[in-house]
């Protein structure tokens, strides 16, 4: 923060804070953070995905992931690693994550998108079908109410098949 605000070692201000480029960078960071926070307030999963996108570029190894609780939770969920793994020695955790995913793939936008889709799909599944925000359940209940059968039939979805569909551009 000291460096970003343009202070010298003695704590005095330098000319960096007077430049238009510095102000633009600070404003952009502020706007990005406010957007991310607003999205997280509306939907926690969306906020988590946006935070993951922002942080993923700086990840160099699994230790970078494991030192950040939000990144760890994101990767654990996306890769299907149980939370009980957190009790293991840090080196064992790194070995486990290495076996599941090559961390260098975080530099590939297509891999990021795959992880994001998996995270959302698995998080929704973990939230349970009784959640009021479950869109599939809402649609099925609407069909039942409209006289489309009167019974709820549970189904099984292949998450890997569902998440492999390409997302269309806007």
From TrEMBL:
It holds the Pfam family DUF1217. InterPro entries: AGR-C-984p-like_sf (IPR023157), DUF1217 (IPR010626). Keywords: Cell projection, Cilium, Flagellum. This is Flagellar basal-body rod protein flgF. The lineage of its organism: Bacteria, Pseudomonadati, Pseudomonadota, Alphaproteobacteria, Rhodobacterales.
């Amino acid at each position: 923060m000291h460096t970003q605000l343009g202070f010298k070692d003695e704590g005095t201000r330098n000319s960096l804070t007077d430049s238009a480029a510095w102000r633009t960078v600070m404003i952009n960071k502020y706007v990005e953070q406010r957007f991310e926070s607003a999205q997280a307030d509306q939907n926690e999963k969306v906020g988590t995905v946006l935070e993951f996108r922002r942080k993923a570029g700086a990840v160099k190894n699994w230790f970078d992931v494991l030192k950040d609780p939000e990144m760890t939770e994101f990767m654990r969920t996306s890769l299907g690693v149980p939370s009980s793994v957190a009790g293991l020695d840090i080196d064992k955790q790194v070995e486990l994550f290495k076996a599941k995913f090559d961390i260098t793939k975080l530099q590939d936008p297509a891999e990021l998108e795959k992880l994001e889709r998996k995270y959302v799909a698995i998080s929704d599944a973990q939230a349970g079908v009784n959640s009021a925000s479950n869109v599939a359940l809402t649609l099925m209940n609407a069909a039942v109410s409209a006289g489309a059968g009167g019974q709820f039939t549970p189904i099984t979805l292949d998450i890997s098949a569902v998440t492999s569909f390409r997302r269309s551009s806007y």
